[in-house]
Amino acid sequence: MDLKRDIYQELLAWKRRSNHKVLELEGARQVGKTYILEKFARQEYRQFLYINMIGSSGRDFLLCLEKAAAWEPGRRREENPLRKAFQLFDPDFTDSDKLLVVIDEIQESAAVYSRIREFARNSWLYLSHQIGYCSMSVDCSNLDIVANCRYYFNDLGVAGHFLRLTGEPDEVIERVLCENFVYLELVQRIRRQEIAGQAPWFATDKKTSGELDFYVRSRMDNRNYGIEVKRGKNQPATANALLERGKLDYVYLLKNTYGGIAGRRYSVPLYLCGRISFELGKR
User: Fold this and answer.
1) CA end-to-end span of the chain, whole Å?
2) Is the pTM for the entire model greater than 0.85?
3) All residues at 6 or more sequence positions from 78 whose CB lies less than 8 Å from its CB, including other chains
4) Would you call 186 exposed, middle or buried from its count of C-beta atoms within 10 A (0-12, 13-18, 19+)?
5) pLDDT tens, 191-232?
6) What number of other Cβ atoms are within 10 A of residue 124's Cβ?
7) Element at 57 (helix H, strand E)
């Protein structure tokens, strides 16, 4: 009972936070996750919408999502197909902080997985342990972090499976998988207490309005590292700009390359990302 009470208190703390990011509840099967969520939803919200992706409600919702996202030439595109899908699924749906949406077994649906970032911009609650968080560093600062702004798969095999089901071109899938590969390596570095944070970070640059694939604050030399995952001859414009302005101390460019060093810029083959150093400042 104490454990259930603690979980309930954590859910209440999430509800009180104003950002209402996606909340992940994970754990072994048949331990009471759905029970505690239903209790929380019914006691704390006026409306509660439950969808199970391996049940009939999941199949019905996918039909609604497909219809909401459908487009024909000459028609205006639906601005928010996800909201429209919920309205089709439940005529009483209202997009407000009085409503909680619980999506169970979300990993079973590639279509819903592909919209996971859209979920992140709304008050959706999902259950899955296939997804990992990535937080955002505002203007490449280790002191201004917005938690849980981006999501990656925790398993590359699962990632590849679902990405291919989306029908995206191979080069797009390869790019996402490469980035996901680096994300998983950074998770390990956090666990070994080599870099700062509770989850990997990506970063924004206010001056150029650009984004850095990953930003690392080393706990070994207290330096700032930028990581860009590139294909072909694309240049890391945002990383270079941050390096020149002193926001970054070093930049790693991970790509299909033999490797090389140009000042504080290091080109490294992607498959060697597990060997890159975050203590260059000690040299």
Assistant:
1) 53
2) no
3) 68, 69, 71, 84
4) buried
5) 999 999 999 999 999 898 899 999 999 999 999 999 999 866
6) 23
7) helix 56-69
